[in-house]
Amino acid sequence: MTGFCNKLTPAPGVDLHSGALDTTAQRRLLDDIREITGQAPLYNPTMPRTGKPWTVRMTSCGPQGWVSDRSGYRYQPNHPETGNPWPAIPQMLLDLWDETTGYPAPPECCLVNFYADNARMGLHRDEDEEALDAPVLSISLGDTATFRLGGLERKGKTQSFKLHSGDVLLIGGDNRLAYHGIDRVFPNTSTLLKDGGRINLTLRRVTKP
Ligand code: SIN
Ligand code: FE2
User: Three-class SS string for 96-153?
Assistant: First the structure.
């Protein structure tokens, strides 16, 4: 990690490294993301059953991309619109995974979420992976957002905190299956993305190594 970093632990197994990536690292990562979206364009996923569109646009890199459509949530090796295999996960992210998780195998999916000003993500759990012993590693770029963290029960208590550009959040341990979501994004809080908005990258180990 390249920035001045302050570690907070909002819940057991959940570590927030705020300011983990400095501006140079954020820009390098953004260049990598532009390459990825050039090969695997952001698309508008739809919700299981209802087919309602998400407000977040998505793409993935890595051997397994996470997709959502009318038939459900799943991992698959190809982009749902182009049919092409997902691009590789950038080396910088593989290194960050090793450094922060210490997990003995690389991530298989990096989900790329793009939030325009009005986008949000409802409370959910990341539970489509077999390797639940690996944490989820999340990186925020661009505008600040309010992250909501609950517990293991949907109806449980929640807390919220802000995620800023360059923050790295690990969700693992006893809270690997905690509910979480994004309440809102605050426009014009970062100059990293020239047209505004927020990018979140979520790295996950999908299969058991
Ligand atoms: C997610 O849970 O997939 C995204 C969380 C975030 O955007 O920070
Ligand atoms: Fe999630």
Answer: HHHHHHCCCCCCCEEEEEEECCCCCEEEECCCCCCCCCCCEEEEEEECCEEEEECCCC
Task: Kindly give the distance from the C-alpha atom of residue 181 to the centroid of ligand 1, in angstroms, as a whole number.
Answer: 6
Q: Could you tell me the pLDDT band of residue 4, with boundaries at 50, 70 and 90?
A: confident
Domain assignment of residue 1, yes or no: no
Domain membership flag for residue 2: no
Instruction: Specify the residue with its C-alpha closest to ligand 1, atom 3.
Output: 202
17: containing domain: 7-204
Element (H, E) at 199: strand 198-204
Give the residue ranges of the annotated binding site. 66, 73-75, 113-115, 124, 126, 128, 154, 180, 198-204
C-beta of 144 in contact with ligand 1 (< 6 A): no
121 lines ligand 1 (CB under 6 A): yes
pLDDT digits (tens, 9 = 90+) for 34-82: 999 999 999 999 999 999 999 999 999 999 999 999 999 999 999 999 9
Q: For residue 51, give the CATH number of its domain.
A: 2.60.120.590
Query: Sign of torsion, CA 33 147 3 186?
Result: positive
